[in-house]
Design a protein that fits this description.
The protein is an all-alpha fold. It is built from nine helices and two strands; from the N terminus they run ααααααββααα. A hairpin with a 2-residue loop joins β1 and β2 (141-142). α7 (143-160) runs antiparallel to α8. It starts with 5 loop residues before the first helix and ends with a helix. 35% of the residues are buried.
Length: 209
């Protein structure tokens, strides 16, 4: 049996650059992927109202957290897997709901489903794989993690394209790359908002060619 190349072996056993919050990553996969699954199986009108209601509820919760310190303390204490800096900032969960809603209403069902699944699978993969990369990093993020994002996003895209409402089109792969690029770049908005919107926009434009 051939020996694993030294560089790969070092990568596997390297001390992580950042700590792993794997329960939060798992929650991210489940919660984000539940939205495109719901889009595929729920009536359109019900899905529209659900996303609007979820966005309104998320904004109200953020306002309460900002205006009432005790409400913020309760949220931090009882809602799962807050990042430390989110105690005084808008949470990634709120950006996720707003991003899903904006993408759904701005673009078609097919690209919205793909873009949200790219976020659901690719973002945690980029974090979990990239945290061991000590070498090639841009903007504090790992190129290896971005490659894992593209691979995971493309794989889940091909799998979900078996559904009759989701075409297996050539622009799926550029969409996965654009989602990974949005996650890698230091954009002034949260990944949960920028990734699905950017990926959906790219796929929509390419589908017009």
């Amino acid at each position: 049996m051939s020996r694993v190349p030294n560089a790969v072996e070092e990568f596997i056993h390297a001390k992580p650059v950042t700590p792993s919050i794997w329960p939060r990553r798992l929650l991210h996969v489940v919660t984000v992927s539940s939205i495109p699954v719901a889009i595929l199986i729920a009536p359109t009108e019900l899905m529209q109202w659900s996303l609007v209601a979820g966005s309104v509820a998320a904004v109200i919760l953020e306002l309460l957290r900002g205006l009432l310190p005790w409400a913020n303390d309760l949220a931090i204490r009882y809602l799962p897997f807050f990042k430390p800096f989110e105690q005084y900032q808008v949470t990634g969960a709120t950006f996720m709901v707003l991003g899903a809603t904006a993408t759904y209403f701005a673009f078609g069902t097919d690209v919205t489903v793909l873009a949200l699944l790219f976020l659901a699978v690719g973002d945690p993969l980029a974090a979990l794989i990239g945290r061991r990369d000590h070498y090639v990093r841009f903007f504090g993020k790992s190129v290896v993690g971005s490659a894992a994002f593209v691979l995971g996003a493309t794989t889940v895209g091909v799998l979900v394209a078996q559904h009759p409402d989701i075409p297996l089109a050539w622009w799926l792969v550029p969409g996965a790359f654009s989602a990974a690029l949005a996650e890698l770049l230091p954009l002034p908005v949260d990944d949960n908002l920028s990734v699905p919107l950017f990926a959906a926009a790219v796929m929509t434009l390419l589908a017009m060619i």
